[in-house]
Specification:
The chain is α+β, with helices and mostly antiparallel strands. It has eight helices and 15 strands. Bound molecules: 6-O-phosphono-alpha-D-fructofuranose.
Length: 327
């Protein structure tokens, strides 16, 4: 008997006392948008959906046509959910806000609509990453304060990796669960419940071309992994698409790193819609996620597009970096 993500979310929402049904209605907006994106990606080479859109986004990056499509799909599907107070996208400089009361507009959704989209033209996995925050009571701050909450305040987070199959991984704080899109029925079907990241893996994942400008301790750390100091031989795997590199780390263990570099001293990856959701999932699966200076989920955001270094992976590799010590 199959369990769809909708059924799973309904079961979960009882546990997070969101029995109103609005929470599952909200997440169904995300899953619907990702199915629209998936359909577009699958035939991108046939329908002129590849290539640059011809504008740059708030990040100063060349927008791909599919970036724009994915962003519009999420804004449209989620904007129709009356429980949404604000939408924060990697593609938009400012949040999209809705004039809804604190009682109705209970959630803020933060997302990277299509991460790694520059890889699409060479047929490499890309992903959608999302994070759900609950709006604070008016007494605790305005909408801006509700948006800039640290990652440990997330009520849900997840990603979809568009690869050989399309896999959705999400958490509401009660474990991390994976679903595979079954195109014959158009539903995400449960394929891996309560995922556990291996205590130690055999891969490290980092863009080694930046090694010369990392802080010294990162070079020493990679040398430690290469030298067998953690009791096993490591292989290097780097796809250059965050969701794909993270998904492998979640399943196989090991460590993914994007350290500070000369060009990006605060790190390249974004706190709110990349590091936070993936950190939430990693911790739910028994892994760890750090900025190198502290737990990712404890960082208080100053801005919606704030960057952070990200080191995420299995306990053994994470403790070797954060607390030293090899054997
Ligand atoms: P680099 C893709 O552009 C992205 O935002 C992430 O998906 C990926 O992890 C990272 O950048 C790759 O960056 O500098 O190694 O090319």
């Amino acid at each position: 008997m199959i369990t769809t993500v909708q059924q799973h979310i309904l079961q979960q929402q009882q546990e997070i006392s969101e029995a109103s049904g609005r929470f599952s209605w909200l997440l169904s907006g995300i899953t619907l948008a990702t199915k629209m994106v998936e359909a577009k990606i699958r035939t991108a080479g046939l329908n002129d959906a590849l290539g640059a859109f011809g504008q740059t986004n708030v990040q100063g990056e060349q927008q791909q046509k599919l970036d724009v499509y994915a962003n519009l799909a999420l804004l449209h599907c989620l904007g129709l959910r009356d429980s949404v107070a604000a939408l924060v996208s990697e593609e938009d400089e400012e949040p999209v806000t809705f004039d809804r009361s604190v009682e109705t507009g209970k959630y803020i959704i933060v997302f990277d609509p299509l991460d790694g989209s520059s890889n699409i033209d060479v047929n490499v996995n890309v992903g959608t990453i999302f994070s759900v925050l609950r709006r604070l009571p008016a007494s605790e701050g305005d909408l801006q304060a509700s948006i800039l909450q640290p990652g440990h305040a997330q009520v849900a987070a997840g990603y979809v990796v568009y690869g050989p199959s399309t896999v959705l991984v999400y958490t509401t704080g009660h474990g991390a669960h994976a679903f595979t899109l079954d195109p014959t029925i158009g539903a995400y079907v449960l394929t891996n419940e309560n995922m556990r990241m291996p205590e130690q893996g055999s891969y490290y994942s980092v863009n080694e071309s930046n090694a010369a400008t990392w802080p010294k301790e990162y070079r020493e750390y990679i040398d430690q992994l290469r030298s067998g100091a953690l009791g096993r031989q490591y292989s290097s795997r780097y796809i250059g698409s965050l969701v794909a590199d993270f998904h492998r780390t979640l399943l196989k263990g090991g460590v993914f790193l994007y350290p500070p570099t000369l060009e990006q001293p605060a790190g390249k990856l974004r706190l709110m819609y990349e590091a936070n959701p993936l950190a939430f999932i990693a911790e739910q699966a028994g892994g760890m996620a750090s900025s190198g200076k502290g737990r990712i989920l404890d960082i208080k955001p100053e801005g919606i597009h704030q960057r952070t270094p990200l080191i995420v992976g299995s306990k053994r590799e994470m403790e070797a970096l954060l607390h030293g010590g090899s054997q």
